User: Which sequence fits this backbone?
């Protein structure tokens, strides 16, 4: 399954020239508002017709302006979850869920009502009316409705943007389940580093209507210089780790990463389960000698591989820790005082408590086997 | 109260005819009413202002003028009238069908207005969402747009019905005032007021007229409320 997009489009003064290709499980279209990401996802869904270019999903051309191809939205078999849910107010939750199924040819129906209802935990809502649901419930029903049309690709346009933090935390595990337990590839629009780092396997980063970076999440998210200004503080390394063991005495979990062991606040996952962590660059300190008498528990040895000027007094330092890159944002003054330079051997220091829920993509709450 | 229901056969016929004419006028106006309302609410085409003007014309023209124009067009010798009579055997002039046509035309702007307003209030994002779920434009209209504009549709239909019940000028000009054929309630009342001793009959029919109009109004309220409750937008 792959998405190939190469389009040119103009709306008033705003020009989009975008090209990307992705075969990931969950591809994030990431950028600040006005970067064109919602326009792109609307083009994939067939809600906007691009001026010129080509869009291909799984080898099938949906748009090819040169060949005069434009598949209308109802024939694309692409599910879409909107930021504002858009449940039909005159139908019950159950009728909303069944709506797309109706238009799906019997032999192409793979989504099972009971399984989807179960996956999203919306069983108790079936007889309710959409207008009586909370924001989080609406969004879960909207996801279910899109899934039950048995789409070949699922698009999600900032599905969490209009929800508060508690509601976001309620939905995120369901999206992770969707990513891990179904076979439908997902394209996910977001402006939040936390969401992208937690959910995405691949990232297409957009700025002013152009693709500025694309590739695996760990690689793209390291480009702190490309992050939207308001999200720069959230930027940092994304590391894929596994649960090594739980430390019951102190309520911590020890994760195994290429960079070494990382201690984080206890995550409710089984030993061996994959956990992705994001280490914000601003939370990382650099030491030239292995520090002693320090409260921080994570001290990762590594080599400086890049130093870039950052915002204001800051510089951004990439530290290669045994193959995994950890990013640190420190001041230029510190860099000079410590005489940091390329190839220098250093230690990246991260406090355990700087990992919070949003930083450790802990997925579902599962039984812990100790 | 018994004197109220003690109608002569001719009076009963007038009541029955009025209800029949108004119902037929309303039902036959609905499909073109929805179509024109859709065109005016969403279409972008040359002559939209002109179409809007033509639709609203019966509202501002003297009814007699509208009736006379209908006579010229749909009369025996009128272009449309001759064509329909020759090819489909449909005759309007001096028939109850003509009364229904006149009533339909007179109520049309009210109906189109009500439906148009409700179409403009529909959130088109809902329709886009239905499209991504596999519904083609026709299904989207049938399953999303139509249910969402139902309150406006009911309001427009009742308005057209009420207008038809009271239509007088265009009807009498176009199809005259023939008992049992084109003599609707207003025409019958008018006839009573023109003859000596007709006061009692006029009053009876007036009261019946009020009862029917009130019933239509109450029915529309009840229907609209039921639809509203169904959609949780009370």
Assistant:
């Amino acid at each position: 399954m792959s998405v190939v997009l190469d389009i040119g489009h103009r709306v008033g003064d705003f020009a989009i020239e975008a090209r990307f290709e992705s075969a990931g499980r969950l591809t994030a279209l990431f950028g600040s508002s006005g970067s064109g990401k919602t326009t792109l996802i609307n083009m994939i869904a067939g809600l906007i017709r691009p001026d010129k270019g080509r869009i291909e999903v799984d080898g099938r051309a949906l748009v090819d302006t040169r060949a005069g191809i434009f598949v209308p939205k109802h024939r694309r078999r692409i599910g879409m979850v909107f930021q504002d849910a858009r449940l039909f107010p005159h139908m019950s939750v159950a009728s909303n869920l069944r709506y797309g199924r109706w238009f799906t040819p019997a032999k192409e129906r793979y989504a099972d009502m009971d399984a989807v209802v179960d996956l999203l935990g919306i069983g108790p809502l079936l007889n309710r009316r959409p207008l009586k649901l909370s924001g989080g419930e609406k969004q879960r029903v909207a996801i279910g409705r899109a899934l039950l049309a048995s789409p070949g690709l699922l698009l999600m346009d900032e599905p969490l943007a209009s929800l508060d933090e508690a509601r976001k935390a309620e939905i995120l595990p369901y999206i992770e389940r969707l990513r891990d337990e179904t076979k439908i590839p997902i394209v996910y629009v977001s402006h939040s580093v936390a969401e992208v780092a937690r959910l995405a396997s691949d990232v297409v980063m957009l700025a002013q209507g152009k693709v500025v970076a694309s590739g695996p999440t760990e690689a793209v998210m390291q480009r702190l210089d490309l992050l939207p200004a308001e999200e720069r503080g959230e930027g940092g390394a994304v590391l894929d780790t596994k649960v090594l063991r739980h430390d019951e005495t102190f309520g911590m979990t020890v994760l195994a990463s290429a960079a070494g062991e990382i201690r984080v606040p206890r995550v409710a996952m089984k030993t061996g389960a994959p956990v992705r962590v994001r280490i914000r660059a601003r939370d990382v300190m650099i030491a030239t000698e292995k520090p002693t008498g320090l409260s921080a528990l994570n001290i990762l040895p590594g080599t400086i591989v890049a130093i870039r000027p950052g915002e204001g007094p800051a510089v951004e330092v990439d530290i290669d820790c045994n193959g995994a890159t950890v990013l640190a944002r420190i001041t230029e003054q510190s860099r000079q005082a410590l005489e940091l330079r390329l190839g220098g051997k250093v230690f990246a220091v991260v406090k355990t408590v700087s990992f919070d829920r949003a930083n450790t993509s802990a997925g579902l709450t599962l039984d812990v086997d100790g | 109260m018994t004197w109220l229901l003690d109608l002569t056969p001719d009076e009963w016929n007038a009541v029955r005819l009025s209800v029949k004419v108004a119902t037929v006028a309303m039902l036959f106006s609905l499909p073109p009413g929805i179509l024109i309302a859709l065109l005016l609410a969403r279409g972008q085409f040359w002559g939209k202002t002109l179409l809007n003007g033509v639709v609203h014309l019966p509202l501002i023209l003297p009814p007699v003028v509208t009736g006379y124009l209908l006579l010229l067009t749909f009369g025996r010798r009128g272009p449309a009238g001759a064509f329909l009579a020759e090819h489909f055997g449909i005759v309007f002039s001096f028939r109850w069908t003509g009364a229904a046509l006149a009533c339909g035309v007179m109520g049309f702007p009210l109906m189109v207005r009500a439906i148009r307003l409700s179409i403009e209030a529909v959130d088109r994002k809902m329709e886009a969402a239905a499209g991504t779920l596999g519904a083609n434009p026709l299904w989207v209209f049938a399953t999303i747009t139509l249910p969402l504009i139902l309150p406006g549709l009911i309001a427009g239909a009742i308005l057209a019905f009420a207008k038809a019940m009271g239509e007088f000028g265009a009807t009498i000009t176009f199809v005259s005032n023939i008992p049992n054929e084109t003599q609707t309630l207003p025409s019958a009342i008018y006839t009573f007021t023109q003859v000596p001793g007709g006061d009692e009959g006029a009053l009876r029919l007036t009261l019946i007229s009020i009862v029917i109009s009130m019933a239509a109004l109450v029915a529309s309220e009840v229907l609209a409320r039921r639809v509203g409750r169904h959609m949780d937008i009370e």
